[in-house]
Amino acid sequence: MRLIFLTAFFLFFSATLFAQAFVPNYDESKIPPYILPDPLVFNSGLPVKNKTEWEKRRTEIFNLFEKEVYGIAPAGKVHLTSVVVSKNENACNGQAVRTEVLLTLQKDDRKIDLSLLLFLPKSGKKVPLFLACNFNGNHTVSTDPGISVTTSWVRNNPQVGITSNKSDESRRGSDSSSWPIAEIIARGYGVATVYYGDIDPDFDDGFHNGVHQLFTGIRDSSSWGSIAGWAWGLSRVMDYLEKVKEVDTKEVIVLGHSRLGKTALWAGATDKRFAMVVSNESGCGGAALSKRIYGETVERINTSYPHWFCTNFRKYNNKEEDLPVDQHELLTLIAPRPLYVSVAEEDLWCDPKGTFLSCVAASPVYQLLGKKGFPGKDMPDLQQPVLGTIGYHIRPGKHAINLYDWSCFMNFADLNFQKRKN
Ligand code: GTR
């Protein structure tokens, strides 16, 4: 009897373990045959023939992404107030003005605060600006001692001494290699950043904190997840930037790395005020094609991060073939605006090739809209950026955002904003 019990227990235990073990596919020959939905064919099967028809088709694609992937953000408006908290007139060796602004978003009797950090070159002109969330708090992006240490929830990281979900002074400047602020300023761009945890803390709490708490409606399977929340927060920052006289609001670039690269894409899709989008190593649920089933999969991302997407997205766990959209169509939602997508050679989890193929498959929409789109059909060599209306590079190294990446983003922005002025 005992033996039977022990055997049954062993079998159950190993089956559970087996079910949990996830082995990502990194073998191109094991990619299943797949058909990508055509962004230029209506759900009815009819072709999209011109710009006017594209706007209707865009709405179809947008609705699918809202309902099935990221979730629908509530339509209600919030009241925005701002207070300047600190200013350094001599940031970046006197080249920039650094400001911290406390933004309060209020809806009825509920409110949340976002701390916005802004660096603007002292050019005396309206400047183009990169707007991006940061991962660990504003004080981590620069060594400037005047930047407030975030008091918001942060993920524990015992290796660097964070054990009670609070950051501290020791983390000041710890992410500065991802934020080459002096170089960005020297090239004439401003930078604005907000800690993504201010917008929505990155853990699954059933959507009681962050921006979700501002709206009290009943949630369903297509309600917004955290990525949609972060993107919505970036739009509220844009509401504020529209009032900053030094910022050229026709040249605001929304940028993000990794989960925040997914966020930047969704922000660009939901808010056409973003004149350009940059998405670095955004992978699954970002710029990489899901139907290739290479690296991170839909099931895997929904399991590790159940709060990032709407619950409808879980219908496609291990059923990528049933997805009514794929991520190249997310890119088409940004057309005709310039879009730059970048990857790293060793970051296979993010599927660099699937990201490239996504750019290729988005290109016909740009072309229909009279833009160059994505030139070429072969993966470029390392550090050979492709520069169409969609730009792309692959660089050596791992999952990160560094000075090389930023230099490419600025080259691409220079090019496109120049074209706009000519
Ligand atoms: C990973 C996740 C990726 C990517 C990354 C990040 O763990 O699987 O989708 O978003 O995190 O944001 O750093």
SSE ordering: HHEHEEEHEHHEHEHHEHEEH
**Bound compounds, please?**
beta-D-galactopyranuronic acid
**What fraction of residues sit in β-strands?**
15-25%
Low-confidence runs: 9-18
Radius of gyration: 22 Å
Q: What structural category arises from helix and sheet content?
A: alpha/beta
- Reading off the top of the CATH hierarchy, the class is best stated as Alpha Beta
| Helix count from the secondary structure assignment | 11
Task: Please name the CATH architecture.
Answer: 3-Layer(aba) Sandwich
CATH-derived topology = Rossmann fold
- The chain-level mean pLDDT equals 95
Distance between the termini: 84 Å
Superfamily (CATH H level) name: Alpha/Beta hydrolase fold, catalytic domain
Question: Could you explain the architecture of this structure?
Answer:
The protein has a single domain, classed as Alpha/Beta hydrolase fold, catalytic domain (Rossmann fold, 3-Layer(aba) Sandwich), CATH 3.40.50. 31% of the residues lie in helices and 19% in strands. It is built from 11 helices and 10 strands. Strand 2 (96-107) and strand 3 form a beta hairpin. The relative contact order is 0.13. Beta-D-galactopyranuronic acid (GTR) is lined by residues 258-259, 283-284, 296, 301, 304.
Summarize the structure.
This protein has 422 residues and is an alpha/beta fold. The chain is built from eleven helices and ten strands. The radius of gyration is 22 Å and the shape is globular.
